[in-house]
Amino acid sequence: MEETSKKVLEVNNLSTHFFTKKGEVFAVDNVSISVDKGEIVGIVGESGSGKSITSLSIMQLLPDYGKIINGTIMLEGKNLLEYNNKQMSLVRGKDISMIFQEPMTSLNPVYTVGKQVKEALLIHNNIKNQEAKEEVLKIFNMVGIGDAEKRYNSYPHQLSGGLRQRVMIAMALICKPKLLIADEPTTALDVTIEAQILRLLANLRDETGTSIIMITHNLGVVAEVCDYVYVMYAGKIVEQSDVFELYDNPKHPYTKGLLKAMPGRNECSNRLYSIKGMVPNMAYPPLGCRFNQRCSEVMEICKKEEPPLIKINDKCSVSCWKYKGGVR
User: Fold this and answer.
1) Is the distance from CB of 216 to CB of 42 less than 8 angstroms?
2) What's the predicted TM-score (pTM) here?
3) Quick check: 277 pLDDT over 70?
4) How many helical (H) and strand (E) elements, i.e. helices and strands, does the chain have?
5) Helix %, strand %, coil % for the chain, to 5?
6) Buried b (16+ CB within 10 A) or exposed e, 215-254
7) Per-residue model confidence as pLDDT tens digits over 194-235
8) Sign of the dihedral through C-alpha 187, 190, 191, 196
9) What secondary structure letter does DSSP report for 93?
């Protein structure tokens, strides 16, 4: 019972498919993740691996052609897939919040940023307008938006990329959510602002106890802030591990490739390493292991049978036939 009480989110056997004119696309396939209270969990992988669709499935913000066909999404013991649209609208922004990839397109250009952040408070809390404004100014100060009163009355185009991203973080945190999902929160920012945003998220976790899911393709971001990591490829979890175990002793060939492709990791060469090939078209997933067409360690069984997720130890599991007989 004590272990269960620590879990803020448990996603079990989640499968999300897209139904398109070209056929059924297996965007997320039998994915299970969990997030403890106050934990920062990373979900990492190339574009098209299913990271963002997993987060949109949790939020139930899928496009019309997307459908969750299997699984459960448990938020503190309550299955969100049993909620109707009205019930989910009360959960979004209050219990679970999300920072989207590009703040310029996520913020409404015709309203001041203060009004947009305040709106979340007015929707979810029984609070007066002036009191809501004071709360917004407090959260602006907390996330490092200087001259908060002036910024409150600014429009998105009047702010820098870093400030817009801080506004998005303030909007996500204003109702003190149990879980924050950050989808590529530093993609459009330069490295200096990226470092500031990452420190900010880590500090906010420490101060507020909010759990965070960090969606990213950048393993440097994962190393900076995450406690635990899920590596996704072609809609599936191929490795999950404590962040130190992942960097010190990666198991799956795909994880090894991602790490090798990081600048500075392959010091013997002047050229950046890249994994050959591309993520497969999930309307026609390959037989066997989905990474077999790009894998330098492929075996015959990899081309015929899909490997299960094999538990290596308490910190690590991997979906690779190399480990079927034990740790290697």
Assistant:
1) yes
2) 0.91
3) yes
4) 12, 12
5) 35, 25, 40
6) bbbbbebbbbbbbbbbbbbbbbbbbbbbbebbbeebbbbb
7) 888 888 888 888 888 899 999 998 888 898 899 999 999 999
8) negative
9) T
